[in-house]
Amino acid sequence: MKHIPRKRFGQNFLTDQSVLGNIIRAIDPKPSDLMVEIGPGLGAMTRLLVSALGHMHAVEVDRDLAKHLEKTFDPQKLSVHQYDALQFDFSGLLSGQDKKLRVVGNLPYNISSPLLFHLTQFVSHIQDQHFMLQKEVVERMVAEPGSKAYGRLSVMLQWRYHMELLFIVPPEAFDPPPKVESAIVRMIPLAQPLPCDGAVLEQVVTKAFSQRRKVIRNCLSGMFTENELREAGVDPQVRPETVPLEQYVALARRLTERPHR
């Protein structure tokens, strides 16, 4: 099939066979796995996965590509869902099965962060996630406090997942080649994330990083007093990118436990 990549879907198709092989080895699919691929495109990775799995699912927003996949693959081996992954209910794939979902995909650069946050809704149903993303996004995901890449994405994802940047994928591995490098990331849900209300943590972290150049006391003014910051272990004079996850969680818990007036 000759498919013209669509910019609005952020389509860049992985064609390098050695890179595809490295990704499959990293995923290590087993016949008993319940797996879903997001954005399979022309099915380059799908073909390799299907050969190792008894059956898998694919979520593809592009109607033409979804039809191509349905024609190319045996429906007994591949269930195609022509759907926007940002709106897709991934828990619906479990259908009473006593197993967790393995999620893989070459995520479009233009929706990668919203999609990662959408998937956190289903984290209790997920065994692991292997994604190809823009390298800069993966660096933000795995960044440690004190680095320029550390921010809202780092804190919110590290609260729920153990993450590892596995390897870099160069632009020439794709058709058409993107203007940036990509990277493969492995995400494994934490069995016991630090106890905290996720919505409140999101509120605190979003406010903290809304003014990165200011000290945390100024960023969170109106939400916490200087004394409250100190009681949570946070130095009021530091910048938000130096505050570790544990201290953001402590702030969120303090906000949750505060008496309503």
UniProtKB/TrEMBL annotation:
HAMAP family cross-referenced by the UniProt entry: 16SrRNA_methyltr_A
Domain Ribosomal RNA adenine methylase transferase N-terminal: 19-191
SUPFAM superfamilies for the chain: S-adenosyl-L-methionine-dependent methyltransferases
Subcellular location: Cytoplasm
Protein name: Ribosomal RNA small subunit methyltransferase A
Pfam entry (one): RrnaAD
The keyword Cytoplasm is assigned to this record: yes
Function (record text): Specifically dimethylates two adjacent adenosines (A1518 and A1519) in the loop of a conserved hairpin near the 3'-end of 16S rRNA in the 30S particle. May play a critical role in biogenesis of 30S subunits.
Major location (coarse): cytoplasm
Catalytic activity entry: adenosine(1518)/adenosine(1519) in 16S rRNA + 4 S-adenosyl-L-methionine = N(6)-dimethyladenosine(1518)/N(6)-dimethyladenosine(1519) in 16S rRNA + 4 S-adenosyl-L-homocysteine + 4 H(+)
